[in-house]
Structures are given as structure tokens and as C-alpha cells.
């Protein structure tokens, strides 16, 4: 027989550890409850493929997140929450489950200091990597999933117009689904990022148009919002310099929203401040893959 008093007590005890966090883009506060033994196992089984891993993480985040007025249907959760808010959820899940990133090494930036080469160690708590400037609140009037920002790049006699956006959780997973594990490894080795240039472009825009740059041009304006067409366009036709100019303008507009998780420690020898930045997605991936103690 199931002892319900036992489970009731246990569920009360475990709910104490919920972590409150703010989602800067959709501007809501949520509570995230910790991973339990069963969750950890289901994560491990999905580690063979990045897209399944991401899907599992998203499912877990959906399960563990409580909004002020209850839970959100899954479809709304992935389409109405930005991929940047997801990082705040990962932070909260990480904190409620583990509390700490463990002991980390800090290298002093002063060349003649003994800790320039021989790092000092400090434990880094999840609470300590949130700083005043970690999150930037969404500044536009329209909610992010309805907002798009047009970026025009003239090149020779053509104007490339991109409808750029802040991707949702669903957008990110959709692009991830176009990456095979082999391509992902190749991307990581060559550029140190998950997505190729073409994939990042497809993630950051919802539609693209080409038109002539002068009055007498014989190019009729055409556009697409079809993901496959966009990917083919980036892979085969759009000049590289156009993508570079696009990314520059995109970053001017949106880069401020990417959260900075970092901690600053004083060097015990010379007092110089040492800043360490953390990529929480990577940290969480490693932690759920290897467990504690091997994360450095
Ligand atoms: Zn020093």
C-alpha cells in the first residue's frame, strides 16, 4: 500500500527548494522546482542527440515551471517564451537542483602576480553569478513573439531585406532539428558554436525579401518565410558579406538581451578583480552528463 502521509510530507519538504526567477523578455516571475531522481535519468538517455536533449530540457522546464496563474500549456510555453528567457529558467532549475557550480579556477589578469599562471580557487554559487546587468528587460511595446525588426542590406543591384526577431524556444528547437550530430560536431570544431552561419541566420529571421536597389531595376520583389527555402538561400545564394552586415546590425539591436552570467572575485595576492563568465547551457549539459566534480 502507498503511504500517502509519507508522500505528502515528502512533497511539502521538496517544494521548499523552489527557486524564483524573472523572465526578462516576457517580463514575468516564475518559480522553478528542482530535478528529482527520475528527471535526471530521462535526461541521460537523451544525451545522444542535441535536438532530443534540447527537447527534453524544454519538457523538463515546462514541467518544473509555475507561473503566477498556474501552468502554461506546452504549445504556449514554447511559442510565447523566448530562448533568452529559457536561460533564466535553466539558471533557476540549476540553482534549485544543485545550488552551486562547484570550485572554479580564477586567473589574475596582472602579469607579474603569482595567480596569473597559478590560479586561485573559489566556490561559485548560482546566486553569485546574477549581477545587476545580467538581464536586460525587453524594451519594445509589442511582445517579442509579435515583434520584428527590418534590416536592409544593399549589395550590388540587390537589396536583401530581413525580418529579424528574437527567437522563441520553439524556433530554436526547430533549427536544432536541422542539425545532425555530425554537422553539430563539425560546427563545434570549426567555429566553437552549435549553429553554422546559415543556421544562425535562419534562427534570427522570420522572413526575407529581395528587391532591386534602383528604380529601373528588372528584379521583381520576392519573399519567403519558408524555413527550407531560407536555409537553401543562405547555403547557396546569399553573399557572405551580406550575412556579416546583417549580424552586425542584428547585434546592435538585440545583443543587449543576451544574459551575462558572471562572478567577480578579488585576487587574494594583489586584490585585482577577476571576472569569470559562465555559459549556463553548456554548464548544465556537462553537469547532467558527468555529475559533480568533473565540471572544470
Ligand atoms: Zn593577482
Provide a descriptive summary of the structure in words:
The protein is an alpha+beta fold and 296 residues long. The model has no long low-confidence stretch (mean pLDDT 88). Among the domains are: 85 residues, rbstp2171; 114 residues, no CATH class. The strands form four sheets. The chain has a four-stranded antiparallel beta sheet with strand order 6-7-8-9. The chain has a three-stranded antiparallel beta sheet with strand order 1-2-3. A two-stranded antiparallel ribbon has the order 4-5. Helix 6 runs antiparallel to helix 8 and helix 8 packs across helix 9. The protein is 41% helix and 21% strand. The longest helix is centred in the first third of the chain and has 16 residues. A hairpin with a 2-residue loop joins strand 6 and strand 7. Bound molecules: zinc ion (ZN). Zinc ion binds next to loops. The site of zinc ion (ZN) has 8 residues, from loops.
Amino acid at each position: 500500500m502507498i503511504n500517502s502521509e509519507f508522500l505528502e510530507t515528502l512533497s511539502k519538504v521538496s517544494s521548499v527548494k523552489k527557486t524564483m526567477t524573472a523572465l526578462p523578455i516576457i517580463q514575468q516571475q516564475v518559480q522553478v522546482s528542482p530535478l528529482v531522481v527520475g528527471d535526471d535519468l530521462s535526461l541521460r538517455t537523451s544525451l545522444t542527440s542535441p535536438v532530443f536533449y534540447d527537447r527534453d530540457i524544454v519538457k523538463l522546464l515546462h514541467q518544473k515551471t509555475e507561473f503566477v496563474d498556474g501552468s502554461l500549456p506546452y504549445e504556449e510555453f514554447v511559442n510565447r517564451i523566448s530562448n533568452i528567457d529559457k536561460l533564466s529558467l535553466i539558471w533557476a532549475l540549476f540553482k534549485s537542483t544543485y545550488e552551486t557550480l562547484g570550485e572554479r579556477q580564477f586567473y589574475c589578469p596582472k602579469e607579474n602576480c603569482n595567480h596569473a599562471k597559478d590560479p586561485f580557487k573559489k566556490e561559485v554559487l548560482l546566486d553569485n553569478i546574477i549581477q545587476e546587468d545580467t538581464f536586460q528587460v525587453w524594451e519594445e511595446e509589442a511582445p517579442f513573439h509579435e515583434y520584428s525588426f527590418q534590416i536592409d542590406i544593399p549589395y550590388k543591384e540587390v537589396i536583401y531585406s530581413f525580418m529579424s526577431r528574437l527567437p522563441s524556444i520553439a524556433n530554436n528547437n526547430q533549427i536544432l532539428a536541422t542539425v545532425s550530430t555530425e554537422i553539430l560536431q563539425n560546427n563545434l570544431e570549426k567555429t566553437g558554436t552549435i549553429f553554422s552561419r546559415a543556421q544562425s541566420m535562419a534562427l534570427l529571421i522570420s522572413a526575407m525579401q529581395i528587391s532591386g536597389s534602383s528604380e529601373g531595376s528588372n528584379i521583381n520583389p520576392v519573399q519567403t518565410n519558408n524555413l527550407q527555402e531560407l536555409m537553401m538561400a543562405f547555403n547557396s545564394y546569399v553573399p557572405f558579406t551580406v550575412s556579416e552586415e546583417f549580424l552586425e546590425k542584428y547585434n546592435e539591436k538585440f545583443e543587449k538581451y543576451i544574459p551575462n552570467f558572471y562572478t567577480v572575485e578579488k585576487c587574494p595576492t594583489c586584490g585585482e578583480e577577476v571576472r569569470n563568465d559562465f555559459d549556463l547551457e553548456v554548464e548544465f549539459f556537462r553537469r547532467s552528463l558527468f555529475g559533480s566534480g568533473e565540471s572544470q
